[in-house]
Design goal:
- The structure is a single chain.
- The chain is built from 16 helices and 8 strands.
- With 396 residues, the chain is α/β, with parallel strands linked by helices.
- The strands form 2 sheets. The chain has a 6-stranded mixed β-sheet, with helices on both faces.
- α4 packs across α5, α8 runs parallel beside α16 and α14 runs parallel beside α15.
- The protein is elongated, with a radius of gyration of 26 Å.
- The protein starts with 7 loop residues before the first helix and ends in a 14-residue tail after the last helix.
Length: 396
């Protein structure tokens, strides 16, 4: 990387120049032009910060100064937060440099050298071996198939293997930005690592991403990852400790449950005759219009647990269902389960009753590395060129 001798005005000139070039691009290539523009702006910022002679003057406030001055020059889409994402994009996706001279972005006139500001790019990892702990980089033409809004979501994933996993799935499933957000929020990566049937779980997630759920059963997961509770640091905890931790992190738990759930009650009293039972947690799905009854167990599943939940479901259906509500769904959250015991215990029941495991710690990421690499190779060998994934949000 050559030594740079440039000034702050030259930095602004270069960003404004590449922005203007991107704006005159053909409408059909607007996504790739936007991505290249943002990558170049990130490159200019990184090079300027590392070598520029004005760095001491601006320090950590550089991005705020740049954002304000670009606004004066009518350069849109360059807020301080967006400039930070562009800088991260340059570092995370160095392979984009290979597209600079390609015909699809030929409108950019020698963007790597301008008014004394010369940039190269960070090295691209050439090793894809899981033992090297670095996934093979997404080919640059595949990066351009993603929209900028997809890339912003991916940049929020710090682990390179996890990011590669979501890159693969986003491209294969043609996910929208919201679908990508939902899968990241539901910890699909971690859940896949914990599953013994990784490929089937991924296929199920792809099918779910392609269509909206029609019943709460479509949203039931196994396992649920409750790392946010902090209970992994304890050698022993009670059901009331788990319930308290879930309530203290209710927003995160709602994300883990899935889209559309609303919290309704805790320790809901069920009174039959002169005896009282207490249901740990009750949620309502506002779209599917039915209740989810959750019973927490800090031990493996036992057959008696199914009978208890069936009792709750019968009571709820008879006494608590409102007009327009669908039948309630029961979910037993346990530390472990024997599938055969679950099938014998729930067989013949009229209600939807599910038994899922929960974990308070995340899996070893190495369990997923080979799957990610294999998926990427298969995708690269069989993909056909088509239009980029779009969310109708591409605005330079």
């Amino acid at each position: 990387m050559s030594e740079l001798h440039t000034s702050y005005p030259a930095l602004l000139d270069q960003i404004a120049h590449v922005h203007q070039q991107a704006q005159v691009g053909a409408a059909g290539a607007v996504n790739s032009h936007l991505i290249i523009r943002n990558w170049l702006i990130g490159a200019y910022l990184v090079e300027y910060e590392q070598k520029g002679e004005d760095r001491a003057r601006y320090g950590v406030q550089l991005l705020q100064h740049v954002a304000q001055d670009l606004k004066i020059r009518s350069v849109n889409g360059c807020s301080r937060q967006m400039l930070e994402r562009m800088r991260l994009f340059y570092v995370a996706y160095p392979q984009v440099s290979k597209t600079i001279s390609s015909p699809s972005v030929s409108i950019f006139n020698n963007p790597l050298v301008y008014k004394g500001l010369q940039i190269s790019c960070p090295p691209v990892s050439k090793t894809g071996s899981p033992s090297d702990r670095h996934p093979s980089p997404l080919p640059p033409e595949m990066v351009l198939k993603l929209s900028w809004t997809h890339l912003v979501e991916l940049l929020g994933v710090d682990d390179s293997w996890e990011r590669a996993f979501y890159e693969n799935e986003c491209l294969k499933g043609n996910w929208s930005k919201r679908q990508l957000q939902r899968q990241i929020g539901s910890l699909l990566y971690e859940r896949t690592g914990l599953s013994s049937g990784k490929q089937s779980l991924i296929e199920h997630a792809r099918n779910q991403a392609a269509q909206a759920p029609t019943q709460v059963a479509d949203l039931i997961r196994d396992p649920y990852v409750l790392e946010f509770t902090g209970l992994s640091e304890r050698s022993h905890y009670l059901e009331k400790d788990l319930e308290k931790a879930l309530l203290e992190h209710l927003q995160t738990f709602l994300l883990e449950l899935g889209t559309g759930f609303c919290f309704e009650a805790r320790q809901k009293r069920i009174t039959v005759g002169n005896s009282h039972d207490y249901l740990d947690m009750v949620f309502y799905h506002r779209i599917l219009r039915c209740h989810l009854l959750i019973d927490l167990k800090t031990r493996p599943f036992e057959h008696g647990d199914a009978g208890q939940m069936n009792f709750y479901l019968n009571y709820w259906k008879d006494q608590m269902m409102g007009e327009g509500d669908g039948p309630p769904v029961g979910l037993l959250l346990c530390t472990a389960r024997d599938q055969t015991k679950v099938e014998y215990s729930t067989g013949g029941l009229d209600h939807q009753l599910f038994v899922s495991r929960y974990l308070v710690a995340l899996p070893d990421p190495q369990k997923l590395q080979q799957l990610i690499e294999t998926d990427r190779v298969v995708w690269e060998q069989h993909h056909t060129p088509d239009v980029p994934i779009s969310n109708n949000e591409v605005k330079p």
